[in-house]
Amino acid sequence: MDKVSLKDFSQNNVCLHAECMDKIYPGTKALDNVSFDVIKGKVNVLIGENGAGKSTLMKIIAGIEQPSSGKIYMDGEEVLFRDTTEARKHGIGIIHQELSLFPNLSVYQNIFMAKEKTRGKLILDNKTHIGLTNKILNKLEHPLDANTLVGDLRVGQQQMIEIARNLIQDDLKILIMDEPTSSLSQQEVDVLFKLMRELTAEGISIIYISHRLEEIMKIGDYVTVLRDGKFVANAAVKDISVPWIVQQMVGEGKSYPKRDRKIDWSRQEKVLEVKDLTLPKSGGGYLLDNVCFDLKKGEILGIYGLMGSGRTEIFECIMGLRPEHTGTINLEGKALKVRNISEQLDRGFAIVPEDRQREGIIQTLDIGKNISLSSLKNYAKAFFVDSKKENKFIDEQIKDIHIKVADKSLPILSLSGGNQQKVVIGKGILTSPKILLLDEPSRGIDIGAKTEVFDIINQYAERGLSIIVISSELKEIVAIADRVIVVSNGIKTDEFSGDEIKEESLVLASYKGHYGN
Amino acid sequence: MNNSKTIKKSNNTLVMNLLKGRTLIVLSILVVFFSIASPTFLSASSLLLIAKHVALYGILGIGMTYVIINGGIDLSVGAIVGLSGMIAGGLINEGLRMFGYTIYFSVPLIVLITIICGALIGIVNGLVITKFNVAPFIATLGMMYIARGFALLRSNGATFSNIVGKEGLGNTGFEVFGRNVGGIPVGAIILAIIAVIAAIVLKKTPFGWHILSIGGNEKAARLSGVKVKKVKIMVYMISGICAAIVGIITASQLVAAHPASGESWEMNAIAATVLGGTSMAGGVGTIGGTIIGAFVIGVINDGLVMCGVSEFWQMVIKGLVIIFAVVIDQFQRNLQAKMALQSRNENK
Questions:
Q1: What is the band of B190 on the pLDDT scale with cuts at 50, 70, 90?
Q2: Alpha-carbon distance B200 to B192, whole Å?
Q3: CB A49 within 8 A of CB A472
């Protein structure tokens, strides 16, 4: 444990104690023996990288999910939450990371859903609903017509509704806020913080998850750091600094071997050049704000950023999935008019999507068909597919990317996650692309397979293929990329190459985009 | 510049109001058209006939509206109409044979039994959908065949005719549901009562909110503490009850129960619901809209018959009206989104 004194964590001011929480999903352990205390009347901050287990822990405390093992105590007594209603009965409210509102219903209906006030137990008392709604919205300094449809509101306003829903609970003891500020303006954040101070003064405990480090220093009282589903450290905010948090989040752990390529990149030709890439957000603001970068031949460019930072949107713009973007995209010196995905594929772009199960593979087809799907027209003879030619290419590709497979006509789901990912990469490569875009290529696959996937990526880069990799795993991106750009809040905040690529600097840069607004 | 913007905006508002009342406008146009095209259209006897038919589509449509707002679909209602008619007709003509005895029930009891049967079928639909995660389309498609099969099995495909009961058995009076009271068909009165109750429940009770919430965002509803499965089962049960009531009225109107009656009526119910502005995606819809939709379907059906249009052309025209309604619905949605965005930008 760290230098911090832990006398504040004594029994009498802990209002909720979660002990030895485990949560196992098929294939991964989201929480590993984590214990967590909520201090009464304080802002308890929970922090960690993507996938550290913060949201899982909160879902368990709010009764949305049940732990695989572990116990929760409130005021010294063991409690068990089978659903959100039971957690709410114990005074626990949650503001979700993703909005969970009803766009088809009005503001007051959203606020009182499943907590209706009735006259004679049967008929809704909408006068009371509207009155209380106005009261709570005024408290939030956000007066709105209670009859407005929530679907017609800005995202920031919707977030306020989500917050208001939890405040109408009379016996609120613990309020969980999972990244409540991600879509709020600075002014709205100030109102929220003021409100949080009022709530804690009333003795309500707050569990606060945020990716914005400066916010934590401003509003937090205690901080708990999680990493890879495990407890790392806790401390009182007054005793620590931002670098301490970053250090705890990153950890030391083992890292992948850093590759060493002796290439003078300044002399390599530019394959892709992206200038002033801007993508407006539907509720106002920007998903991408004047992002510029380039890609050299044979280079592996990493893009690091937190969830929602705009990293995936960059790929979507390049692939023509976001026709509303502005800015220029030059391929080999020629400006492109990006209109749709099939045109981009023809021009030599290939993409390996983030969600392998939903967007990468076609579960109902066999291994071979999954590999040849994108390049089928190369094997076409009049209206028919030349299976001999197709099979030849499939076999070569299977060998090339080291898929261990007995028979290529087996179903794709018979392969492990790692081998499935290789199939998806192989499918992209068979189209003989100039540029390969990989979105989280190592997501949900085991360590051994990860190394193999990286070997394949390296191997193709050596052969001259230009590759862009998005990854939220620091160690991976440090190991694999020749150069890394960091996006945060839609802004490119920094760029590192060679030995400058360090985990700490990447993490710091990934929060920078939020300071400006 | 500014001026033209204001004009455009007020234009939008006008178009919006026209769109909102579109089904009513279509209905008025149809009525005017048919009263010119067919001299008998506006006579008392033909209006009574239309009202009788509208009552059937309307009651089915109310159940369907609940189901569709909830985010589902119920294809089994037409078959439940046929089966309930057979249950009621069979109980009147043959009674219930049990332990070597034959029991004859009074008409109110028969009505109650039939409605309970409809409710049970609906509950089974709901259970299959919620407990076994079967898509509503498939679950109710299966139930459609099952219910129709049982309707045919009940009398081996034959009709129960003259279901008026016998004085001595104390089961007379079933034909009352097909009669007129004070010049108004009983079916239409039942429709009015059910419509008022259904509209109040949807608008004014927690249960109504929960139906809307599940159609709008099922995950959020669950997280808010709405008992999603229970509400869904209730909704299919209500649809089953509505279908059973229609089955009783139909059999009573004809004074006969035919196993094939109600065939493809689920489509009329869906059409009435969609014409009434209920979104197939769930979350949006009103009972009042569905009733107007049922009138449109009824007027088209009977009006075309009175004009002597062939049955085959009737189908084509009905299909066109339904597609046209949904196209306009999409148009309205886009306009609404545009206007919301506009007012949001102005507020900034």
A1: very high
A2: 12
A3: yes
Distance CA B253, CA B176 (A): 8
- The stretch B263-269 carries a mean pLDDT of 93
With CA atoms as reference, the chain A residue closest to B283 would be A104
User: Cβ(A301)–Cβ(A481) under 8 Å?
Assistant: yes
> How far from B167 is each of B87, B106, B172, B174, B281, CA to CA, in Å?
20, 11, 6, 12, 51
Residue with token string 């219910």: B147
Q: Among residues B218, B309, B266, which one has the least CA distance to residue B78?
A: B266
Q: Of the candidates A102, A151, A153, which has its C-beta nearest B220's C-beta?
A: A102
* pLDDT > 50? residue A517: no
Closest to A287 measured CA to CA, from A273, A305, A274: A305
User: Rounded distance, CA B54 to CA B319, Å?
Assistant: 18
**CB neighbour list of residue B107: distance below 8 Å, 6 or more residues apart:** B92, B165, B171, B172, B173, B174, B176
Calpha distance A100→B224 (Å, rounded):
9
Mutate to test the interface with A, among B201, B217, B347 (most CBs of A within 10 A): B217
CB contacts, 8 Å: A118 with chain B? 205-206
DSSP B144: H
> What tens digit of pLDDT does each residue of A298-352 get?
899 999 987 778 888 899 899 888 888 888 888 888 888 888 888 888 888 988 8
Can you give the pLDDT at residue A10? 52
Q: Is the dihedral of CA B142, B146, B151, B157 positive or negative?
A: positive
The answer, yes or no, to whether residue A14 has pLDDT greater than 50, is: yes
- A94 token code pair: 């949650």
Element (H, E) at A508: helix A503-512
